[in-house]
């Protein structure tokens, strides 16, 4: 049974279904987030970034259920995450992977029961399709071994490890070159 993959077009009920998936997935270790809080955080994030350049929320549907989500947008100086990551990187690394602007993958999640069936790879491909950037970047918890294996398997490069944002757990940063596939 194949999933249907669509870019979210603004429907509130669909967004609520995505938030439910987000709350379920990030209640798992190593994230251990409070489902109510993380649901709110996800919705705030979508509303905050909706006007950002190249904003996309990609949803995978199985019947009426959201079984995967991928969220991202273009970033430049002034972006909250970028402004906290760049100072922790060697200048050349920051220039190579984040440049003046790049695409930031903010969230990626597959429903536990649907994992390792290709959903993550498919929604990520739709998220990154045709973007006007030469690189995409993201951070992952260092302890999130399945996620790290997933990014490595999908061609991402580990750009940096041992980073933190404020009191966060240790993070690593991954980068992907988009030039070959999509950018000018
Ligand atoms: C990371 C995540 C989105 C991957 O989604 P997915 O739908 O399972 O991904 P795919 O089926 O496309 O890819 C699976 C591949 O990723 C790697 N992988 C994923 N989970 C793995 C695990 N538990 N152990 C080893 N490899 C794993 C493998 O290469 C795997 O291929 P294989 O099954 O042939 O060995 C999913 O595990 C998830 O939602 N995790 C919790 C949330 C999260 O960590 N998000 C990322 C935040 S940065």
TrEMBL record:
Protein known as: N-acetyltransferase domain-containing protein
SUPFAM superfamilies referenced in this protein's UniProt entry, alphabetically: Acyl-CoA N-acyltransferases (Nat)
Pfam families tied to this protein: Acetyltransf_1
Ranges for domain N-acetyltransferase: 5-179
Signal sequence segment: none
Gene Ontology molecular function terms on file: acyltransferase activity, transferring groups other than amino-acyl groups
